[in-house]
Amino acid sequence: MFEIAREKNHFIITFHNTKRFNCFLVEELSRQLSLFLNTPGCEVSINFEGIDFVDSSGFNFLRILAKKAKEHKFKYRLCHVSDEVRELFVKTDIADLIMDYAEIISNKPCR
Question: Angle at Cα 98 formed by Cα 89 and Cα 63, nearest 5°?
Fold first, then answer.
């Protein structure tokens, strides 16, 4: 499903054997959210490599993450975002919210 690697205060979320960022992933990721919130000055990177679809639960998770990042003053980035997913961000108007609090990078490592 996914793994969360930690390098000091940097959490890197990587997905395995899935092309969809959907309610099944989001449910478990939401449980793990406290890791980030309880780590002062943390940075969160979500590696979207291989993800080509995001459902409404995925968008809601990204909205919540943006709000939590603002409240708890941590940085996050989305890396390896495909053109298809980037287009979904634009079509659902989440791109503006994400861009206020996150860095979206295409072909750079998440580290």
Answer: 90
Q: What is the CATH number of domain 2-105?
A: 3.30.750.24
Its pTM stands at 0.85
Residue 111's pLDDT is 66
Domain segments of the chain as ranges: 2-105
- What is the number of alpha carbons within 13 Å of residue 20 lying toward its C-beta? 7
Beta bridge partners of 14: 3, 47
Hey, what are 20's tokens? 């969809």
Average pLDDT, the chain: 84
H helices present in 1-111, as ranges: 23-37, 56-72, 83-91, 94-101
